[in-house]
Amino acid sequence: VLNGRVVQRASDLTVYLELVDARTGNLIWGDQYNRRQSDLVSLQSDLARDVSSKLRTKLTGAEEQRVTKNYTQNSDAYKLYLQGRFFANKRTPKDSQRAIEFFQQAINLDPNYAMAYAGLALGYSYLAIYGYSPAKDVFPKSLEYSKKAIELDGNIAEPHITLGILSFLRDHDIANWERENKRALEINPNSTDAHRLEALRLLFLGKFEESTAEVKRALEIEPLSLAGNINYSYCLFYSGKIEESEAQTKKTIDLSPDFWLSHYYLFNVYRLQRRYPEAIAELIKAKEERDEKEAAKLIREQFTKGGWLGLLREICAQPSEYKMMQYDIASFYAELGDKDKAFAKVAQSIDDNEQYCGFLKTDPFMKPLRDDPRFVEMLKKLGLPQ
């Protein structure tokens, strides 16, 4: 096990590292590194090289190059990139926009910084996936910056991961999504994001065991990944393991109480269990963490006034006021028994390139629609097998 801590004093950094034998608790090696913040990029390479050396790992030339590779020589650009990743991982409209700004600043300092272009592609895709920006406006930018990243460096996995999800959402081409994921994993077999997105792809296909195996691999690599942990909740939920999904979602909330997606999925768990007061409490938390406080207030008021079904009817009547995705509205109409409006909203969700429509095949909330011939047509439109 590699342990370490970082101490910052003004512009000076001190990094303490130690390798411990997990079986015996014995110290294998320890060292201290004193550097300036401006040396952050070279410090990262030195740490990777020294730890690999002390572990006596036999690295191939390509592996050693990957371990010690710097994607930019500009320390400030690197820090801006890390800030961009931090905000992108929050997956809210406002934070996705902030991420884009940080990635752009990194590119301004280093115009050849491929990873920053990959980050820019991710940020623009998140504006549509987790926000309300029209996909037709932001997906072309995401596509452009993914290709630019690959043009600058063909050996990074991140742009292929983004191109994969765009293939499905934009073109409903699940085969190309698989190809892009495969390419990402060839480049970096230890990419948490590539494994969890492959899990999502398999989940959309209803391949529950394979999907769970992929997301577990992602969590082996990065146990504290919020996206990996919530993806595991998805796998459990859509495979019908509702109580396990509830436990996993609560575990994710413990990791980060302000991660809105965890509260949104706990809302879905409670909704399926018809624990409506608890469901509403989680939906309100999700809205508040997304900085949609007015929508949270309306949800609270309407549930108090009209109960669960009254709230659904009100949301369906004024979806923009409640900041709900088209796919959510479709599931509400399905629950209310209005199949025509439910299918109309599913079609709109697909046309709007919403990510959540990918769950159509396995979503328990869409069960009332499955015996209708239009359900098969929607799956075809999505590019999913019937």
Q: Would you give an account of this structure?
A:
The chain is mainly α. It is built from 19 helices and three strands. The protein has helices at 40-54, 61-68, 75-88, 93-109, 114-129, 135-152, 158-171, 174-187, 192-204, 208-221, 226-238, 242-255, 260-272, 276-289, 293-317, 319-322, 326-336, 339-351, 373-382, and strands at 2-9, 12-20, 27-36. The protein has a three-stranded antiparallel beta sheet, with helices on one face. β2 and β3 form a beta hairpin. α11 (226-238) packs antiparallel against α12 (242-255). The N and C termini lie far apart (46 Å).
Break the fold down into its secondary structure elements and pairings.
Blueprint: E1 2-9, E2 12-20, E3 27-36, H1 40-54, H2 61-68, H3 75-88, H4 93-109, H5 114-129, H6 135-152, H7 158-171, H8 174-187, H9 192-204, H10 208-221, H11 226-238, H12 242-255, H13 260-272, H14 276-289, H15 293-317, H16 319-322, H17 326-336, H18 339-351, H19 373-382
Helix pairs in contact: 3-4, 3-5, 4-5, 5-6, 5-7, 6-7, 7-8, 8-9, 9-10, 9-11, 10-11, 11-12, 11-13, 12-13, 13-14, 14-15, 15-17, 17-18, 18-19
